[in-house]
Design goal:
By secondary structure, the protein is mainly α. It is 46% helix and 0% strand. The protein contains four helices and no strands. The mean pLDDT is 77.
Length: 133
């Protein structure tokens, strides 16, 4: 294994020798890791206190990972569904087609003098859609 925590096969010796981590980078990564773990534990402890528990559960940390970093831990995020966009209705699709058609091919009536009631069919206001053309 490449480390004590996983079952990945070790990297070839030539690849390990080809890359060395600079001490400054290792120090920055250590600081980042410590800050991440500290933030996760603080969030998890706040969740445990909110549910009136005395122990920190893996689900508390999984919720932190999901909410703060959009990392979904398998087996823990079943009750939290992602937002699914609603499917537009047929009426909405028809109206969208008409609006796009009107934008691509403007009508000569649009150049009429503003405020002329006859040009707008005697009605003040917006556009009226009939649904079928």
């Amino acid at each position: 294994a490449c480390c004590h925590c996983c079952s990945h096969p070790p990297a070839p010796l030539s690849a390990r020798q080809a890359f060395r981590m600079q001490p400054e980078l290792q120090e920055q990564l250590t600081k980042l890791t410590e800050a991440f773990v500290s933030e996760a534990v603080d969030f998890g402890c706040a969740l445990a206190a909110r549910r009136r528990g005395a122990t920190l559960r893996p689900s508390d940390l999984a919720l932190f990972m999901q909410r703060s970093h959009h990392i979904y831990v398998p087996g823990f995020n079943k009750e939290y569904r992602q937002y699914k966009r609603p499917v537009p209705s047929e009426l909405h699709k028809a109206r969208t087609v008409l609006v796009r058609k009107a934008q691509l091919h403007p009508q000569p009536q649009a150049a009429a003098v503003a405020g002329d009631g006859a040009a707008a069919g005697g009605k003040a206001g917006g556009v009226r859609f009939s649904g079928a053309e």
